[in-house]
Amino acid sequence: MLSAIELARDLEAGRTTVDRIFDACAEAIAEKEGIIRAFTALDLDAARLAAAEGRGPLAGLPFAVKDNIDTADLPTAYGSPIYAGHRPAADAAIVAQAKRLGAGIVGKTVTTEFAFFKPGPTRNPVKPSHTPGGSSSGSAAGIAAGFFALAIGTQTGGSVVRPAAFCGIAGFKPSYGILPPVGLKIFSWSLDTLGVFGKGVADAAFGAAALSGRDWRVDRQMPAAPHFALVRTHLWHEASGEMRVALENTARLAEKAGAKVSEVTLPAVFSDAFAAHQVIQDFEAALALGHEFDRRVAELSPILRETLAAGRAIEAADYDAARKTAAEAKLALKDLFQDFDAILTPSAPGTAPEGLGSTGSSIFNRVWTLMGVPAVNVPGVISAQGMPLGIQVVGARDEDHKALMAAKWLEEAIAKAD
Amino acid sequence: MLSAIELARDLEAGRTTVDRIFDACAEAIAEKEGIIRAFTALDLDAARLAAAEGRGPLAGLPFAVKDNIDTADLPTAYGSPIYAGHRPAADAAIVAQAKRLGAGIVGKTVTTEFAFFKPGPTRNPVKPSHTPGGSSSGSAAGIAAGFFALAIGTQTGGSVVRPAAFCGIAGFKPSYGILPPVGLKIFSWSLDTLGVFGKGVADAAFGAAALSGRDWRVDRQMPAAPHFALVRTHLWHEASGEMRVALENTARLAEKAGAKVSEVTLPAVFSDAFAAHQVIQDFEAALALGHEFDRRVAELSPILRETLAAGRAIEAADYDAARKTAAEAKLALKDLFQDFDAILTPSAPGTAPEGLGSTGSSIFNRVWTLMGVPAVNVPGVISAQGMPLGIQVVGARDEDHKALMAAKWLEEAIAKAD
Q1: Has A66 been annotated as catalytic?
Q2: What's the pLDDT tens digit per position in B85-95?
Q3: What ipTM goes with this model?
């Protein structure tokens, strides 16, 4: 894997060159892309040139873009045959920003169909018989396979945190609305949030800091031991045995390493909010993909077709009630965060499921996306079968740096405990 | 002017036909479009056909779309030479929705450059030497000229309420996030809001009710006399003498007609929020139009170029502080609305300015857009020179029907007082 932050430091110190970095990418891609299939489009030469000419905090770095995000120089198909070969008129705002910061856009990465359920062909680099997770499948798998140093994806349910968990890398979904959602193929405008993938928490934070213009880096000071809330959620019974053990062990090792850990049971409004997430997502998706549903329905997958039909049947009053529930849960969460720094909770029900028929479940992510709060997958815990078990650190809204610091602290505590 | 609600009733009762409606549009366009120049694209034949085949609450109605909103069947240039002849791959969500509801999309209407400052060629039907307002210039002017019965636009500062005020029609900007912002050319993702134009308040409410799937119609029951808060704002000195008199007279006639009117002075956080609006707008615009600024800068107007450069110079910390100010003002406004039903305030500093060099000022609209609250231009007050003076009715967030009812009540009170 390529660490963005180490590459940036090595470039600055003259210990490496853009050509050597891109040679390493080319080698990894030549070796593994035939199996992994992370890309929908690839232009290493253009990326190498742009990265070499780049001036800015991401100069010289290979960077990949999920294919539900518009690029003017690379085809953008949104994971749907409807848009095969589509070339948007403009770069999405986040892509223009990455270019301006000096990154070289290596290619577009596989998304599920419109970033919803139907998987693409991507395999998990840890174990290719398993899903890499989704919907940002190619961005997460490509980081894990060493194809690029940074990648962006989007999260509507759990599409950043879950694939990061399954691939054993860091994934960071910032607070809603900070990274510009302009030029995404919107699925749900109240939920869709851009996120950043990197090898470790410091790498994802480094990329997100540059892209957001915020002071979000976590590699310049040693994070203090945080006060964690251990949150099992009302879906604890849906977590696998090894995930339950992993989270409890992580809480214990955090305590040993000096953190305070309090068990917190979320108030009932959060299980209501969990249900509200689906109402909001489906209602908005039916509107957002109205054109495709009305004019290209035969080219949609059955699962998407059913979801859009169900979304169209939701009454506006039920959608409005769901938005109200979400607003109440947000207030309750703000209050809860008075007492601790970050939440410790699973990133997914367990390790990456076998097979490519599903990208796994987002049940442990949805409510945090709805709350608009920062969420980080912390890598490092490995199952007995050698598969990553993702630990999720969730912060208070607009306290992204604090969340990242807590995640970085935990990542180090996990690494030291090994 | 064509009243959407009267046309819908007449169609239902068999008192008119789709052909007769579209003949009237064709006649008005043939007579006046040479002067008014509301359209960037026009396809009356396709619209007539679609409207005749339409099934739904907007069936048979001629409907126009501001040209910063994507249409798959009509060119979409966003008011910029960069996108001359551009044909989006999909209809915006709101366009797909309008078609599904039976409307016939007559054409695209003139927007200022990317819905910002630089005016298009549109003239005010009330007095063609004057601006129709902006940025939704063509949508407002086309309603006033009788070219179509309903139109949509967008508001980032005052781009729905102000042109409606200048053209003497109704303009309704619903609560933020209710109408789907998917397929708009985003200028500021925290502010951009779709709005609806019609001849009178009941027409705009009828269109918005259909498009939103909400029970927002105001023509089925007599609205009760509301409790208005008369809000002069800290910008009162910027209102023209005739606007000040108009607002005060309107408050008095509302009282005479049975409304309660209380003078309310907004807390200081609202003048801070007024300043925050520009910080948020410019910071986000610089990101949203990053592609155009980096790659097509020579094709941007000088004013937009300067604004984007200034936006790029805003520190993220100042943007975050502005968002915080906005959040505080929202809470304060929610509290204020405990005491009354709707705010009565100017829609614009005065009547439409002479000339086409500027579309006028949005200073009386910006803070309400930032608050995400519903805002309605109520037509009916006319200056000594025969120009419309818009009265703005502002409601509480997500209380759109209440705002529309208050606006409808006021519109009738003004009409009766004449």
Answers
A1: yes
A2: 999 999 999 99
A3: 0.97
